[in-house]
Amino acid sequence: MTGDGDAAQVRPRLILGSASPRRRELLAQIGVVPDDIRPADIDEIPLKAELPRPYCARVTLAKAAATTRALGEVVLAADTTVAIGRRIFGKPADEKEAAAFLIALSGRRHRVFTCVAVASDKGLRYRVVESVVRMKRLSDIEVNGYLASGDWRGKAGGYAIQGPAGTFIPWISGSYSAIMGLPVAEAAVLLRDAGYPVEGGW
Predict the structure, then answer these.
(1) Which residues are catalytic?
(2) Beta bridge partners of 36
(3) pTM (2 decimals)?
(4) Would you give the DSSP letter of residue 79?
(5) Given the DSSP bridges, would you call strands 109-120 and 123-134 parallel, antiparallel or unpaired?
(6) Which CATH entry fits the domain spanning 11-193: 3.90.950.10, 3.40.50.300, 3.30.465.10, 3.40.50.720?
(7) With left for phi above 0 and alpha for psi between -120 and 50, is residue 9 left, alpha or beta?
(8) How do the domains of the chain map onto residue ranges?
């Protein structure tokens, strides 16, 4: 016979290796609240001829490795990369670069890669999720209005689908939460495998 105390799994401390408020919001949707936020400071410049998918995985694993983890703690790190073909669209350095990104994405389909990694005493596991996004053709008024909003700051590709730029996106194929910054289904599986219980995993 199993007692009530055996049925309740003790949650290890969860460390989020990201300062992204979007990732905290997405984790909250599955009942996960990090015990500490320890954003990793790493070089995110792509290597020469590096392709988007391996770049996204490399940066995520580097974030996980750079996040301090004590024995028994679980670390979750993630990264999102926007790409057209081999070209990687990172976080724009300024408004001029954000404008160039939006013009390049306007009227085209692009890919969004999001990698999530979980490190624990059991080791390090990760998943890369690929989604496809179509952005409508943008007018100068739309581009300038979005730039003026400032919502592009700190966003891969220079836009955020969950913000005002959502009106630019008529179609996606893949994971909406991954496009936002964290594939919650895959994150939940990795967390459970690491010994961190997640709601819905009965």
Answers:
(1) 79
(2) 15
(3) 0.91
(4) E
(5) antiparallel
(6) 3.90.950.10
(7) beta
(8) 11-193
Residues of the chain where predicted confidence (pLDDT) is lower than 50: 1-7, 202
- Burial class (CB within 10 angstroms; exposed 0-12, middle 13-18, buried 19+) of 81: buried
d(CA 180, CA 8): 32
pLDDT of res. 11: 84
Q: Give the N- to C-terminal CA distance of the chain in Å, as an integer.
A: 18
* Residue entry with tokens 């939460």: 177
CA-wise closest residue to 134 among 77, 97, 175, 172: 172
| Token pair of 165 as six digits | 């730029």
Tokens of 37: 């936020």
